[in-house]
């Protein structure tokens, strides 16, 4: 069903089914695809809801987020089961992802209640200032307007219908129109109905939330170019993200697009760490690269280290850990095909050797077989395709002949979500020298750990320079994600009767404020 | 002279002169235009300076800003005199603008010393958390990289070489390459040399600041597309701004452009205010629209009110105030020609009547004659050109036949820097009903005042929806302007030896921090 405001109806632009990636079988029921008229209706309702929703009491908005979280918990088992058949994600992981999703919603509820996100600043009038009096100026952040959210395939809960983008936008006071991902339509509808019911329960305008299915080229572009949509959140492929960025920039009035697109999450193993614990690092690499069949935005796809005996220890240990890893279903047949192509590209590239492969399982319809390759900096220089993202459990060890070469490899990398450094005590000077470069390459720097596992907190940055994202100034995970959907407005000499909530002298909302910069 | 790092030399791509807009005469000396090789050299030096400059102690960075302010004060008389001959801005206004410029620099010095702009957040490790321990995550904001600043013509000090964009970027830790405006090259060089000397005095890398002259199409685009430039600040025309936005978006790695472009700063006069003090508002309008010959970004170019006898009182009083206003030199012959064209377009438009004109002065080479027109909503609907910005002292009164029409006029406006409302007690309900719409249209809302006069403070928003600016999420005036040049980076499990300044357990920098969101 398409969920457009309070309505639920079947789209009339063709039908599609979810596919069980374990068996390749179509899953009932059939879903109807929406068209541009559904986009227009959702955008119209969102626009109609905007002025009311953005001025709802903070407590109402927070309660909406809590109610969504509670509703997801209530049908948790049903959700986890449907996630399983639609994506092949095992119940334990789906349960964890559901917990992450509800935690995220409740965390944003607390952000709304706190009120600091309103960014209130008050510069009181100075009537006696010379040569000119200073007027009274008060500022707050207001939501940009209705937000389009493009759900991701790889986190059918945490980056989907009621995921981080939706939670952040609703918290900011922005109505949301979700373009659901066609790989998990049943999960999307279960979650979407929970949101729809929560909107109704709190007596909010129906347009606060809509969700539809549709083709990226038609429905997706219609959504991004609808004049009532004022910002876009997206998690997905580089080509998909860039298409939305271009469409948004070509609007008569351009809007921001927050697209999280592509990252190979390089892991640097510095000489001391390589020498002291190469085998341990090799085992850790396999653990990280195979989480979720490598289908995480932060999966480590590139290991950079110095040539020498330590690399063999690392590779041997990684190979030993990788070989018994069972094949597992990938998220969808399409993703499995792209993975197979990407792995083939690496296997056939000159100067790239196979370190090890995981188990194969021909019984799986869309099974993924983990794989680790090795090459040298010289090969990397000759073949830039080697550093293109292969979405899935594939990683490539690159050896540099010297510290200078190691620097060069990092320097030539594109922007990343994360970069990881394994460094022991004797590596600290080198790590310190690398740090400024790493800061320019990534949104998050991890030392002696692994990039997979993204904490939902206040200090998290899940973002990074292009092409990791289309806007390095933001994060799509954690409480700072709310800032993406806000803009400042200053109010000069407004009489008390007109001042928006939070800006009055008495601060009746009790929100944190900065007065004269303090 | 071009000031490229520590060097000063004459550009070799043709020469140009400033022109005294009062006499039309060329002013000595001749200036040399730079070319793409000068852009490349400045960008190279800026890139080389970046990693050092961004990690200078906050006190050093603040002292740099203070030293620039002191240096400008020291040669204040010389600067004011040169501003006068190059732009026709009278000494009193130039002196005020200089004071605003040095205030701005010193204010950003205080922002740097305070350290809150670093946006430090610490989420400490929770080793005992179940099911998984939480890693230690700390975040700060780092500068985007070298910033290109395009100086404006209308504020030869406050929005020019050491103006708001430069002060904010230097405060953020970003080296700056200024493309100076060719209408005030002597002023630019005086100011640029002060900045250059301050960089040297504090022993900072020479690339922290460069300044060059050059054509927008060649040098400007070369600057925006140089891979080492990571953000752009611009104040100027809509066509100029859009060209830079397009060039930045077409880079292999796109970068943010903060372009302040175009605003007609509508003034709404609500029925009660019109009835009670129409004449006073008419006089106030003339006062505001003629400040700086109307060559301010916030000059009120459109007055929206209800038809009726009050409008005549407003128009009569405005006319009486306008007629004796003497002609005055505009900033440059080019701006004067564009103003004459714009005024002609309004004068010749069907259904537009002339309310009054200021004095003419044929002796002035580039004199501007203030002018006020009147029309109706019906005419506005028929001719969208009527709401295009006319840069200079021109304003247009538009009458609506009803409150509904008044709403429609506002609804159909493009994005603005400011919107002003004149409202008396009986207008408060109407004003309240309009407020949500006004918030969507502008970055600053003024009640019972005038948009000209932009306070430099913490709560100021000098920004607004497209096409007022290319990025409504920001301000180019006030302390929040620093945010434009920063991006967040998270550090996960860094050993104490690697933690950047401000993130250590002891908070040795003493910067404000948010721990676990508090």
TrEMBL record, chains A, B:
<feature type="domain" description="Aldehyde dehydrogenase">
    <location>
        <begin position="16"/>
        <end position="463"/>
    </location>
</feature>
<dbReference type="GO" id="GO:0047533">
    <property type="term" value="F:2,5-dioxovalerate dehydrogenase (NADP+) activity"/>
</dbReference>
<dbReference type="InterPro" id="IPR016162">
    <property type="entry name" value="Ald_DH_N"/>
</dbReference>
<dbReference type="InterPro" id="IPR050740">
    <property type="entry name" value="Aldehyde_DH_Superfamily"/>
</dbReference>
<dbReference type="Pfam" id="PF00171">
    <property type="entry name" value="Aldedh"/>
</dbReference>
<dbReference type="InterPro" id="IPR015590">
    <property type="entry name" value="Aldehyde_DH_dom"/>
</dbReference>
<dbReference type="InterPro" id="IPR016163">
    <property type="entry name" value="Ald_DH_C"/>
</dbReference>
<dbReference type="InterPro" id="IPR016161">
    <property type="entry name" value="Ald_DH/histidinol_DH"/>
</dbReference>
<keyword id="KW-0560">Oxidoreductase</keyword>
<protein>
    <recommendedName>
        <fullName>2,5-dioxovalerate dehydrogenase</fullName>
        <ecNumber>1.2.1.26</ecNumber>
    </recommendedName>
</protein>
<dbReference type="InterPro" id="IPR044151">
    <property type="entry name" value="ALDH_KGSADH"/>
</dbReference>
């Amino acid at each position: 069903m398409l969920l457009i405001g309070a309505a639920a109806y079947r789209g009339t632009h063709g039908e599609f089914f979810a596919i069980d990636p374990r068996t390749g079988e179509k899953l009932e029921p059939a879903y109807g695809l929406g068209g541009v008229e559904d986009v227009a209706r959702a955008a119209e309702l969102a626009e109609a809801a905007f002025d009311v929703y953005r001025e709802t009491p903070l407590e109402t908005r927070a309660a909406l987020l809590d109610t969504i979280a509670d509703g997801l918990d209530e049908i948790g088992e049903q959700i986890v089961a449907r996630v399983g058949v639609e994506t092949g994600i095992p119940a334990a992981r789906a349960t964890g992802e559901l917990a992450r999703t509800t935690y995220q919603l409740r965390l944003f509820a607390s952000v709304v209640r706190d009120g600091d996100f309103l960014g209130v600043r008050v510069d009181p009038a100075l009537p006696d200032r010379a040569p000119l009096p200073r007027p009274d100026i008060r500022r707050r952040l207001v939501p940009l307007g209705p937000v389009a959210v493009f759900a991701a395939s790889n986190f059918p809960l945490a980056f989907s219908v009621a995921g981080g983008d939706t939670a952040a936008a609703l918290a900011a006071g922005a109505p949301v129109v979700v373009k659901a991902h066609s790989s998990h339509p049943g999960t999307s509808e279960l979650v979407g109905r929970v949101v729809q019911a929560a909107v109704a329960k709190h007596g909010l305008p129906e347009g606060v939330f809509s969700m539809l299915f549709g083709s990226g080229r038609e429905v997706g572009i219609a959504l991004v170019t609808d004049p009532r949509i004022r910002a876009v959140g997206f998690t997905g492929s580089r080509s998909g993200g860039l298409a939305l960025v271009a469409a948004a920039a070509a609007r008569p009035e351009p809007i921001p697009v927050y697209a999280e697109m592509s990252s190979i999450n390089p892991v640097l193993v510095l000489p001391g760490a390589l020498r002291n614990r190469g085998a341990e690092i090799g085992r850790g690499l396999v653990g990280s690269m195979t989480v979720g069949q490598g289908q995480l935005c932060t999966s480590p796809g590139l290991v950079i280290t110095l040539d020498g005996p330590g690399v063999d220890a690392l590779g041997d240990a990684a190979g030993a850990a990788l070989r018994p890893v069972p094949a597992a279903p990938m998220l969808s047949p399409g993703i499995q095909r792209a993975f197979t192509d990407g792995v083939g590209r690496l296997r056939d590239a000159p100067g790239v050797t196979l370190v090890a492969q995981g188990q194969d399982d021909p019984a799986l319809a869309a099974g993924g077989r983990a794989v680790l390759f090795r090459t040298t900096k010289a090969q990397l220089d000759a073949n830039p395709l080697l550093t293109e993202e292969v979405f899935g459990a594939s990683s490539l060890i690159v050896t540099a002949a010297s510290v200078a070469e190691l620097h060069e490899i990092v320097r030539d990398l594109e922007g990343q979500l994360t970069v990881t450094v394994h460094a022991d005590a004797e590596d600290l000077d080198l790590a310190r020298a690398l740090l400024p470069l790493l800061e320019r390459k990534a949104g998050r720097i991890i030392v002696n750990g692994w990039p997979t596992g993204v904490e939902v907190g206040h200090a998290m940055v899940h973002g990074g320079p292009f092409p990791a994202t289309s806007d390095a100034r933001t994060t799509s995970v954690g409480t700072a994600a709310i800032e993406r959907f806000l803009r400042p407005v200053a109010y000069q000499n407004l009489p008390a009767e007109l001042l928006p909530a939070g800006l009055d002298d008495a601060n009746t909302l009790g929100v944190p404020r900065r007065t004269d910069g303090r």
